[in-house]
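note to self — DONT lose this again. spent like an hour looking for the file last time. sequence + predicted structure for the chain T wanted, 72 res
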Amino acid sequence: MDFTIDLDDFTCSGNPLEALEYLLGREVVFSISRDSPFLPIIRSKYKIKEISREGDIIYFMISSDGSGSMTG
């Protein structure tokens, strides 16, 4: 885990789902707001492991196989 990708930051990608797809299989921590409209999509599309929460921000990783829908 070398760095954190802020999925709410417009510079990461025009579409946070594209950023996730590009970085699948890598040891990356992502952050996203609990209120993001992308969060339910991410939870349904990927197996995620929640690392921590700081206020309204959720830090998570995508499971190694990246598929399915299972939250941890």
